[in-house]
Amino acid sequence: MATAPASTVPEYPMARAAGCPFDPPQALRTLAPVSRIRLWDGSTPWLITRHADTRALLADPRVSADARREGYPHTSAAGRARRTRGSTFINMDDPDHARLRRMVTGTFTIRRVDALRPSIQRIVDERIDALLAGPRPVDLVQAFALPVPSLVICHLLGVPYADHDFFQCRARVLVSRDETVERASAAQDELTGYLDGIIADKLAEPADDLLSKLAGEHVATGELSRRDAALMAMLLVIAGHETTANMIALGTLALLEHPDQLTALRDTDDPALIAGAVEELLRYLTITHSGRRRVALQDIEIDGQTIHAGDGIVLAGDAANRDEDAFSDADRLDVHRDAGGHLAFGFGVHACLGQPLARAELQIVYSTLYRRIPGLRLAAPLEQIPFKHDSNVYGVYELPVTF
Amino acid sequence: MRVIVDQNKCVASGQCVLAAGAVFDQHEEDGTVLLLNASPPHELHDAVRRAAALCPARAISIRTSARALDT
Ligand code: HEM
Ligand code: SF4
Known about the structure:
Low-confidence stretches of chain A: none
Helix content of chain B: 10-25%
Mean pLDDT of chain B: 92
Helix content of chain A: 40-55%
Number of helices of chain B: 2
Number of helices of chain A: 15
Number of strands of chain A: 10
CATH architecture of chain A: Orthogonal Bundle
Oligomer: heterodimer
CATH class of chain A: Mainly Alpha
Bound molecules: protoporphyrin IX containing FE, iron/sulfur cluster
CATH topology of chain B: Alpha-Beta Plaits
Structural class of chain A: alpha+beta
Order of helices and strands of chain A: HEEHEHHHEHHHHHHHHEEEEHHEE
Number of strands of chain B: 4
């Protein structure tokens, strides 16, 4: 990859401005729409910050998500080691990506997810019952935001929730930006080893869950190796947990800091308004704040620049979701706006597989939590809330609340 | 309006079903798009255009005929 003079190329990721925990880094806005950045390893891939460019490139078959290719912009040494040791379809191109993804898409259709809504509602209600009966202040992350998606994904995959400390802790290591290679590799081996054991159980004794289906229909037939099945299960465990949990906690904090928006959401029964509020919070917060990572397979002309074959590309969805050309008054959180077309779930063939599930979970959480606990408020000043600046998925480590 | 879907491109995101459930459904087995109505009535055209714009895989295309009655 060509390198630009060190002095002119800004480092990425960039820091958010103090006191603006919900806004993307200010420096992102001062860059040209297609410009070079410098990563942890000294490489200088392209950064894309506009909504239209991001959509175009994420849907472009000349752009690869294959992390084993030269030039792929890794998030850290640990990320590089992990992604080159075991690939899942999130880091493959078609046709391999499509073949593997389609083994699990049947579980995430709108109809199947709608059928899960009563179970999700029950999980949410039980957790709120426990909150109301428990001590206060309480950390909303541990008591609610993490257990809800964790219970849901365990139910769906057929993984015992009793083991949640084990896999939540590994999942956290795997999305961190600054873990050592050793710790990340160990976490990956432990998690895939554990999931391989579960897949073996499902082969022997299938149940009505995703891992049984994967084992019975694809591992038993020899179409998918045990190792690849375990890696796929790991992808689902991590993606199913960390993202939704962060949206619940960070979304709640954003609403508490925008009381008019919280009131609008709390006072409505309208499913369309609730669904719209979820889209707006996804857009506004764009928790996957480390950019989609890709590498060019051919030369690509965009905005007067040439991205050469082999160049890394980082697509800053957080900046794209605040692009004034796509969303007017983009920096304002407005639950009434039409946030359709936001890029919080990515775009192109790798668009989030779990998006129907994430939407259902967030719609149920946001329409239940603030109604059942109308007095919900922060139990610490905003300045003391620990934000996940050092994680590939943004959020808060803790959210002390009371009511 | 004629709607065309490309099942090979579809990544089963379900966006089209959310945008225009009267026109799109998903296959039970793998969630790929199922076209319910290739010539939807006028009142659904906006929803279909929205579905096509939101489709992350660009698997939905729309042809508008020159004949006014058919558009
Ligand atoms: C609010 C919650 C969520 C957000 C913001 C989110 C965001 C994303 C994004 C941005 C991508 C694109 C990655 C890329 O292009 O490089 C993605 C992919 C993915 N997500 Fe999600 N996600 C969420 C919830 C979930 C859930 C609940 C699951 C469930 C299992 C899930 C499973 C996946 C998988 C498997 C992929 C890879 C898809 C592929 O490569 O084809 N996600 N997600
Ligand atoms: S929106 Fe596109 S990718 Fe998603 S199910 Fe419909 S056709 Fe398939």
